[in-house]
């Protein structure tokens, strides 16, 4: 194996003495000042293909996602897999890669609307000799709506992970939420009363994709009309959209609230379990 080496008057090939996971060692390297300068200049203006690897750990009622971000490198992928094998209950979730190349040495932040905390606030996209850095997120168990945002505040990547991708039949919602303890009692009473009592938590926890499907379902069941749906669907901010939907349904009375609870139970059973609201019989 040989390495292409940039010199003042051209390029040369150098013999490699030893190859490790992350380095190629040269026994008698030739120092070139211009190669150092060129590497410094170009490393700050290079677009690179990048990898994102998502791992999840579920602990009682808490979900802990870890999202790794690094320039594409098979060795780094192995390093992440090796590190995650040491975490009890860690499960890798398949996700997409960024469609576009990312700028090396740029920093990125992760946005997850329903998260309690995300650390660190930003990660720099750089080549590392160690295991890549990752965002550690703490959140309630629900669908995950993620977006990666660059220095210029533009979204460079989005992903949605529904609950059924990490809660399987052998790792059921009730088992996750109960964690061996006694089950919490569900809410009882009229549908309107149930929905009103969980309004704050609904706004906080419901995901954007569920809201859009919920709107379609409410329209199909004539709980809302076309004009009402269009007025809410254009709202970009998730919590504001959720607030408008639940308030709109609450104003329509108990029958409409029953429809919404049943629809929510079909679209996001995990969220209904967290909110402890009961599906009710279809109104006649």
UniProtKB/TrEMBL annotation:
Keywords: Cytoplasm, Immunity, Inflammatory response, Innate immunity
Cytoplasm among keywords: yes
Domain CARD residue range list: 187-279
Residue intervals of the FIIND domain: 1-180
Keyword Hydrolase: no
InterPro entries referenced in this protein's UniProt entry, alphabetically: CARD (IPR001315), DEATH-like_dom_sf (IPR011029), FIIND_dom (IPR025307), NLRP_Inflammasome (IPR051249)
Subcellular location: Cytoplasm, Cytosol
Major localisation: cytoplasm
UniProt cross-references to PANTHER family, sorted A to Z: APOPTOSIS-ASSOCIATED SPECK-LIKE PROTEIN CONTAINING A CARD, NACHT, LRR AND PYD DOMAINS-CONTAINING PROTEIN 1
Protein name, as recorded: NACHT, LRR and PYD domains-containing protein 1 homolog
